[in-house]
Specification:
mainly alpha; 0% strand; elongated
Length: 257
Amino acid sequence: MELDEAEQKLFLDQHIGYSDAVIVKLKEEVHRLEELKLQNIKSFIESTRNEISRYWDLLFYNDDDRKLFGPFYSDNFGEHCLELHEQKLESLIKEYNENEEMYKLIKSRNVMWNKWEEIESRESDPNRFANRGGNLLKEEKERKLLQKQLPKQEELIVKAISEWESSNDRIFTVFGHTFNDFVNNQKQELQEKKDQMKENKQRQREEAMQKDLTYGSTPAKTPKRRIAGTQILTPASKRTKVCTWYRSHCSEDHDSL
């Protein structure tokens, strides 16, 4: 339950010791809090469910694993339901804390993989060669770093999981798969995605070529070269030249008369 800390401190400061009066007040406070708990039990269950979901994510539970806890999906917001939720949350917290380092290794590896997947997907982007601000060089450095880090991280995880399985006498799973299967599935999905992108690009090129063959393509017009010193006559300039020639000859004929 979420209570005001100042209110809690004030009550404790006012009720110190083990006298009969103090014990009576403590029992009355417990009863009051229990009543308050029942009045707000639905909100407590929903709050606990949020925490359970958070730990399910941290523990890499898949949907089938989560459905095993039936009360999570119940609409019966009774006190017993709350107790079951609190017990479940307590067990999840214990499970995580006992193997926190292993879970953090897996989470860190997944962050690396997401970055690797992003870099691989950018290979088909023609704008990546613009290299503005050295982005291409930065990307290549990240690629080389991840190529070294990912295998090492996965090796540490495999070792940690092997120790966990020996201690718990059962298979450790990540979203319902063994860790090796989980990693291999990610790699296969990425390869299929890259193959699909290549096929799309190839199909687009073939469609463009077919369009050119069907409708033809308009060649770019090359401007005619002009020899240095040559005057290009426009219709207006031609008329001006003719008029000048005509006036000059008319003047010569008049002078000869």
